[in-house]
Design brief:
Layout lengths: L1 H24 L6 E9 L9 E14 L3 E15 L9 E18 L7 E22 L4 E24 L2 E10 L18 E10 L1
Antiparallel strand pairs: 1-2, 1-8, 2-3, 3-4, 4-5, 5-6, 6-7, 7-8
Length: about 210
């Protein structure tokens, strides 16, 4: 009986060491969040139909009871068809801006269950703007093609409201560029280098 008890004790100790060794060799979990957001530029609707999207990939840096901090990158693509411009009948073309940014996300969960959250996300990066089309005034026999490009430093922040169901999130947001507002440049939100987007999107955490 004594030998039987000693054998059981040895098996228990060995299994405990094996379990600890297994836990020590397992890699730390890595949490990521991706978001696809569809945008509408509410101030530039007079220039024509517009639409776009923002895609983000973010890594969880700190995850507490009520706060989550993430960092990552964002890609933004927006398009305005100026063929339906309400200010003139003489333009047939488009304006597109494409941006790449670094982002830092501060998310606050006010309730015990981490479902509903508010997020403030500063961004900084570069935007490439391109306008292309044709100007034509038949009564003056004017027909001129144009193409302009402009790359500029851009910065601002995103404000979001989200609700999480399992690993999926439904997101409503505003994307505000401060370019031209804080650097003594253009100050109207309707200008193309100080954009304001509103939209909806989805997120997924893994």
């Amino acid at each position: 009986m004594k030998k039987y008890c000693i054998a059981i004790a040895c098996i228990y100790v060995i299994s405990g060491f094996a379990q600890n060794e297994k836990e020590n060799t397992m890699p730390d979990p890595v949490s990521w969040k991706i978001e696809l957001l569809f945008t509408q530029d509410i101030f530039n609707t007079s220039y024509g139909k517009n639409y776009g999207f923002v895609f983000k990939g973010k890594k969880v840096w700190l995850d507490k009871n009520h706060f989550t901090l993430l960092y990552g990158a964002a890609f933004q693509n927006s398009y305005i068809s100026e063929s339906d411009n309400l200010f003139t009948d003489f333009v047939d073309g488009y304006t597109r801006d494409i941006g790449a940014y670094g982002v830092f996300d501060i998310s606050y969960y006010p309730f015990r269950k981490k479902r509903f959250y508010l997020s403030l996300e500063p961004f900084i990066g570069a935007t490439h703007l391109k306008s292309k089309g044709q100007l034509y005034i038949p009564e003056y026999s004017v027909s001129e093609k144009y193409k302009n490009t402009y790359t500029y430093f851009n910065y601002g922040f995103t404000q979001s409201l989200g609700y999480t169901i399992n690993r999926f999130s439904i997101i409503g947001f505003s994307w505000i560029s401060l370019k031209g507002i804080l650097d003594e440049g253009r100050s109207r939100p309707a200008d193309f280098d100080s954009r304001l987007f509103l939209g909806l999107g989805v997120g997924y955490t893994f």
